[in-house]
Amino acid sequence: MYTTLPSSFQRPLRCIAAIALAFAASSAAPAIAPTSAAPDFTLRTMGGPNMRLQEQRGRVVMVNFWATWCGPCRQEMPQLDRLYQKYKSSGFVLLGVNVDDDAMKAADVAAKLGVSFPVLLDTDKAVSKLYDLSTMPSTVIIDRDGKVRYVHRGYLNGYEENYEKQIRELLK
Amino acid sequence: MKTRMRPAIALIAASALLGGCSMLPTFKPIEPWVKPYERERLADPIMKLSRDSLPEKHFEHVRDVREAARGATGVQGGGCGCN
Amino acid sequence: MAATRRSNARLRAGGVARLRGLRAARRRAALLRRLAGLIGGVLAASGARAVDLPEDHAEALYHLYNGGGVTAQGPALLVRKSIADKVSLTGTYYVDAVSNASIDVVTTASPYRETRQEFALSGDYVYRDSQITVAASTSHEPDYVANNGSIDVTQEVFGGMTNVSLGFSRGSDRVTKKGSPEFQDHATHWQYRLGATQILTPRWLMSANFEALSDDGFLGSPYRVARVFGAAVPERNPRTRTGRAVKLRLIGDLGNRDAMHLEYRYFRDTWAIKAHTAELGYSRYLGQAWLADAYARYYTQSHALFYSDNAISETTYVSRNRQLSTFNDGSLGAKLSYTVRKIPGRYEVKLNGAYEYTRFKFKDFTDVRTGSLYGYSSSVVQLYVSAIY
């Protein structure tokens, strides 16, 4: 008759499991979700001149939020640089938004890691707040019409393959 | 309050507390107030609770031998016959 | 066959209402399932947040302790390496060469030399927001072998602002006595740990740790003697001991490339010992390559129930172990680190030196040679090289 646990056992067990899951999972749904328009911003680049997101309309943009004190961010940089070198001639641009308090340290680490893509400085964290970052690093992929298509939170080995697939798809 | 509803209430309360529960717009969820991009100072080595494990292990061993209080230090270790 | 028919009939007859009740209950269960799934999904959707594997690093240490007639020194080595970005393994080797001419030894026997060796191996595994650490260690002395195993689980919750950890250790020791091959005993230890670290502000964090310790078996020293009515008798310790410790810590960044920490620990056990530990420390970066730390620590404890400097009654248990007496000690310590080479994210090599001076004052333990209350001071020196690679 009963092939599973009686419901009197199942309900509290599922509730406990759900509460445990609620504790284990992180909180707050993100404000930046796929298919919403990417909030525009203007930031100073490492080289000096300002750069505006809206000016990149027509190109596929990947915005990567990173910091010198974040291990996975530094791990990710060489992979992002490789992607930038490979696809920049096809209409792809990568903006590395740094959130350090000290711009000099950011420039120093970026130079040491040998990144060729533009590094923007968000020292007052305004753009981070605008994009409601919930993890470091965070990567947002925006299509040619300025719409957010993919949001990646965190970085683990192998994520760059996913990035490449999504960039190729949007470049078509 | 029916006993059957208690687990459900507890579940809803717990998830509302942790935030992001779109089912109950009247509850104000507690959100993490230190954002990931604000954790620069906390990532510094001098803010670490435990920096170098060997020297700490040595200090804990020296104190364990001479003092009767043990535990809650964050250093896991074995024993020895030193006393 | 008949039984099934009978039970079906019973169900049909007595249970139409029950069946409706059951259906309603199942619908409620399904709704709750969907609710739990939805909430869980919404909460889980915000992150493939990852706890980092601990960094690869290595430490080589020379340690020296000198105080109260005891000198213990030796090298220690630690190497940590991550395998395939999933598991981090740590190997530790620790040597203690002890030259013991302490007050106990000098007044009851003759000074001796002994070497203790310890090996430990541990593995860390990270999955999303959790980290599991499994460790095993073994310590060898000519008359004492201790084996220990532990498991710890750490979980990041609440957007990474809170870290909750649970741990369990079990130790098993074999005690023998030099010169008395007929003496053999054992001791077992259990430890249960619970801890939480909470980020308070972008500059302050605090942690609370609780540990319950339980020991069973031979918990004394086969060489130590107690004093009853002025005469030396072998000590008699209880064969069980349970203690609890709670420790609170606060660390804060002070804004000038410096930080301070404050800690307090309370310990209490079934041997009636109550102990308080307090520590205050300050760290500061000096220039680009130097890091300096300074701290002050104070410890005080009350004596074990059966402890006595000179017992004037016959009790089941009696001990003159000064570790169980009423005493306090104050320490001042300093540490200096020099970064030899640093490439962020690649490697870093540091040279470090630490020194700690401690002064012990006993309230109910006397020096039998002089009859006055005992006290001594000790120094700890640590010189080590640490590298992140």
Task: Describe the overall structure.
- The complex is a heterotrimer of chains A (172), B (83) and C (389).
- With 172 residues, chain A is an alpha/beta fold.
- Chain A has one domain (29-171): 3-Layer(aba) Sandwich (Glutaredoxin), CATH 3.40.30.10.
- Helix content of chain A is 37%, strand content 20%.
- Chain A is built from five helices and seven strands.
- Chain A has helices at 7-24, 71-87, 103-113, 126-130, 159-171, and strands at 42-45, 50-52, 60-66, 92-98, 119-121, 138-142, 148-153.
- In chain A, a hairpin with a 4-residue loop joins strand 1 and strand 2 (50-52).
- The radius of gyration of chain A is 20 Å and the shape is globular.
- Chain A starts with 6 loop residues before the first helix and ends with a helix.
- The model of chain A is unreliable at 18-29 (pLDDT under 50).
- Chain B is mainly alpha-helical.
- Chain B has a domain at 3-34 and 41-66.
- Chain B has two helices and no strands.
- Chain C has 389 residues and is mainly beta.
- Chain C has two domains: 1-46; 54-388, Porin.
- Chain C contains three helices and 18 strands.
- In chain C, helix 1 (2-14) crosses helix 2 (16-44).
- The longest helix of chain C is centred in the N-terminal third of the chain and has 29 residues, at 16-44.
- The termini of chain C are far apart.
- Chains B and C meet through helix 1 and helix 2 of B and helix 2, strand 1, strand 2, strand 3 and strand 4 of C.
Please write out the topology.
The complex is a heterotrimer of chains A (172), B (83) and C (389).
Chain A lengths: L6 H18 L17 E4 L4 E3 L7 E7 L4 H17 L4 E7 L4 H11 L5 E3 L4 H5 L7 E5 L5 E6 L5 H13 L1
Parallel strand pairs in A: 3-4, 4-5
Antiparallel strand pairs in A: 1-2, 1-5, 3-6, 6-7
Chain B lengths: L5 H13 L34 H14 L17
Chain C lengths: L1 H13 L1 H29 L12 E11 L2 E14 L3 E14 L2 H6 L3 E16 L2 E12 L2 E14 L4 E16 L2 E20 L4 E14 L7 E4 L2 E4 L5 E14 L4 E12 L4 E13 L3 E12 L25 E17 L3 E20 L6 E16 L1
Antiparallel strand pairs in C: 1-2, 1-18, 2-3, 3-4, 4-5, 5-6, 6-7, 7-8, 8-9, 9-12, 10-11, 12-13, 13-14, 14-15, 15-16, 16-17, 17-18
Write out key terms for the chains shown:
heterotrimer, B: 83 residues, mainly alpha, 33% helix, C: 389 residues, mainly beta, Porin, 16-stranded antiparallel barrel, two-stranded antiparallel sheet, 18 strands
